[in-house]
């Protein structure tokens, strides 16, 4: 049973029946899935959600599937962790991590979007799936396509981290490394989507795909006792996630499922080497000037973000802000999170932590703001970004251990 | 003095379903005006009323986004590849 009424252009309002379609045929803007919220409000309540299994399908009425999902069944319901030690380090009294670095099946928030998109490809009876990816999406499309028995064609920039390639190829996906940056890969993928009758998850399935990210917001609210936080800090690549987290809060509010009014300030995080959305926000504009990315945060290296305009507008309208941080700050962010909370995130998570630190220092996030930071990917995927010391090697003798430990203590 | 322009599906209703059209070299602006003469309404589909390129359309000259060049004033030499691509994918 589906509550989807169709697709609607975000800018001009033109409506379309549900179908694989990248954007509005009239003004070319992105499309949003439209729902029968009255119908949803009759069946979805705190009680109906509470008894469902802990996966993102707890919110299935708010997701655009017409049939029961067959892949991605264990995705979502990732931990919301109260981060006391990181909070103390940053100067925040009520800080939480939404930890999608342990999402299923491929350890990033992209498992939410592909759970919807790959099932949607099956519903539309498309005979293959594809995507342009900076890595996390590649992993997730490949895994869910394998589970669905669909061939997957994955296009990536040719400078991607080794583990992200391994964790795509292993599923039998056809991986094509394109000589160029993500924006060039994405352009090629858009052109291919006009030639091949496949489900390109972030092209012609993108309106549906993006809806999966709303569950990141639903879960935060549910885990906070059905409250929207005061502030969220979200990494931005294409800019979609931050807009969909906001949509998630707003939908819960509309359905009467929140105890507070949504006044969440949205904070976007980017790398200084790829900051087109943050730069627009700081200029007081929503006009995105594309950039040529140069950052270790490869998963965020989108210089021409499809939802940049929408994200910049929403951030400004929420009273939030966007910031960007250097590669050194990103690495410090990764190690700060690991040492304070025992959570190992990839470079994008380092961006988020480092930007949060900056926003607190700027006074844009206040010490008592209930703040949630989005940790969207796992550190094991980008280990080459870190330059960790080799362990001390000793003979199996107590005296050698003691000498080694006192050496370490002297260095600390 | 001609070059090839790739048309996205969303604009092919205007170009009589042609996916590639031949145009004379010039600036991107001149080429769009040229196309508007051949295919009435082309300009208003691609540009806003104030003449700026629509927000969700990107134009590439030999693979480079014209926003890294000189926007609509970018000169497109003979033999170049010019593409119009919708900007709503990815991420």
What portion of residues of chain B is helical?
10-25%
Q: Tell me the overall shape of chain B.
A: globular
Would you count the extended β strands of chain B for me? 7
Structural class of the secondary elements of chain B? alpha+beta
Note the total helix count of chain B: 2
Major sheet details of chain A: 6 strands, mixed
Largest Cβ-defined interface: A-B, 37 and 23 residues
What share of residues are in beta strands of chain B?
25-35%
Rg on CA atoms of chain B, Å: 12 Å
Percentage of residues in DSSP E strands of chain A: 5-15%
Order of secondary-structure elements of chain B: EEEHHEEEE
| Spatial sequence of strands, sheet with the most strands of chain B | 2-1-7-4-5
How much is the radius of gyration of chain A in Å? 21 Å
Shape assignment of chain A: globular
Explain how this protein is built.
The complex is a heterodimer of chains A (412) and B (91). Chain A has helices at 37-43, 46-50, 84-90, 110-123, 136-148, 162-169, 182-193, 206-209, 214-223, 240-254, 276-283, 308-318, 327-341, 347-361, 398-411; strands at residues 4-9, 15-16, 31-35, 80-82, 95-99, 129-132, 152-157, 174-178, 199-200, 231-235, 265-271, 321-325, 371-375. In chain A, helix 10 (240-254) links the parallel strand 10 (231-235) and strand 11 (265-271). The longest helix of chain A is centred in the middle third of the chain and has 15 residues, at 240-254. Chain A has a six-stranded mixed beta sheet, with helices on both faces. In chain A, strands 8-7-6-9 form a four-stranded parallel beta sheet. Chain A has a three-stranded antiparallel beta sheet with strand order 2-1-3. Chain A has 412 residues and is an alpha/beta fold. Chain A has 15 helices and 13 strands. Chain A is globular. By secondary structure, chain B is of the alpha+beta class. Helices cover 18% and strands 30% of the residues of chain B. Chain B has two helices and seven strands, in the order E-E-E-H-H-E-E-E-E. Chain B has a five-stranded mixed beta sheet, covered by helices on one side. The longest helix of chain B is centred in the middle third of the chain and has 11 residues, at 28-38. The N and C termini of chain B lie far apart (38 Å). The mean pLDDT of chain B is 94. Classes of the chains: A alpha/beta (412), B alpha+beta (91). At the A-B interface, helix 7 of A face strand 4 and strand 7 of B.
């Amino acid at each position: 049973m589906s509550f989807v009424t169709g697709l609607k252009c975000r800018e001009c309002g033109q409506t379309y029946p549900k179908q694989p379609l990248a954007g509005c045929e009239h003004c070319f803007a992105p499309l949003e899935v439209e729902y029968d919220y009255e119908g949803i409000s009759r069946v979805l309540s705190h009680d109906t959600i509470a008894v469902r299994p802990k996966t993102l399908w707890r919110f299935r009425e708010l997701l655009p599937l017409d049939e029961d999902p067959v892949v991605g069944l264990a995705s979502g319901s990732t931990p919301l962790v109260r981060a006391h030690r990181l909070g103390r380090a940053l100067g925040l009294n009520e800080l939480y991590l939404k930890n999608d670095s342990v999402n299923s099946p491929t350890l990033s928030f992209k498992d939410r979007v592909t759970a919807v998109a790959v099932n949607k490809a099956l519903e539309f009876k498309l005979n293959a799936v594809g995507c342009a990816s900076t890595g996390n999406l590649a992993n997730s499309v490949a895994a869910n396509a394998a589970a669905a028995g669909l061939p997957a064609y994955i296009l990536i920039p040719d400078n991607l981290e080794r583990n992200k390639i391994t964790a795509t190829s292993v599923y039998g996906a056809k991986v094509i490394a394109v000589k160029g940056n993500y924006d060039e890969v994405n352009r090629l993928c858009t052109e291919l989507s006009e030639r091949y009758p496949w489900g390109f998850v972030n092209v012609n399935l993108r309106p549906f795909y993006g809806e999966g990210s709303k569950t990141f917001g639903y879960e935060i609210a549910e885990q906070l006792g059905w409250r929207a936080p005061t502030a969220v800090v979200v990494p931005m690549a294409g800019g979609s996630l931050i807009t969909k987290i906001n949509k998630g809060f707003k939908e819960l509010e509309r359905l009467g499922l929140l105890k507070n009014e949504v006044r969440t300030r949205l904070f976007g995080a980017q790398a200084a080497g790829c900051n087109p959305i943050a730069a627009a926000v700081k200029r007081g504009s929503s006009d995105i000037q594309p950039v040529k990315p140069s950052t270790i945060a490869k998963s965020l290296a989108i210089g021409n973000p499809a939802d940049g305009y929408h994200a910049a507008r929403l951030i400004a309208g929420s009273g939030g802000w966007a910031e960007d941080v250097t590669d050194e700050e990103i690495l410090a962010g990764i190690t700060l999170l690991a040492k304070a909370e025992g959570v190992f995130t990839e470079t994008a998570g380092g961006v988020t932590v480092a930007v949060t630190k900056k926003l607190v220092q700027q006074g844009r996030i206040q010490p008592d703001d209930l703040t949630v930071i989005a940790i969207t990917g796992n550190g094991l995927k980008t280990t080459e970004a870190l330059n960790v010391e080799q362990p001390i090697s000793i003979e199996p003798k107590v005296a050698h251990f003691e000498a080694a430990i006192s050496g370490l203590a002297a260095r600390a | 003095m001609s070059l090839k322009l790739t048309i996205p599906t969303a604009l092919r209703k205007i170009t009589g379903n042609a996916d590639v059209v031949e145009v004379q070299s010039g600036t991107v602006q001149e080429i769009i005006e040229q196309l508007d003469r051949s295919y009435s309404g082309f300009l208003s589909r691609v540009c806003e009323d104030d003449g700026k390129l629509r927000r969700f359309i990107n134009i590439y000259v030999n693979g480079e986004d014209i926003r890294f060049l000189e926007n609509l004033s970018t000169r497109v030499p003979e033999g170049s590849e010019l593409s119009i691509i919708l900007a709503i994918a990815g991420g």
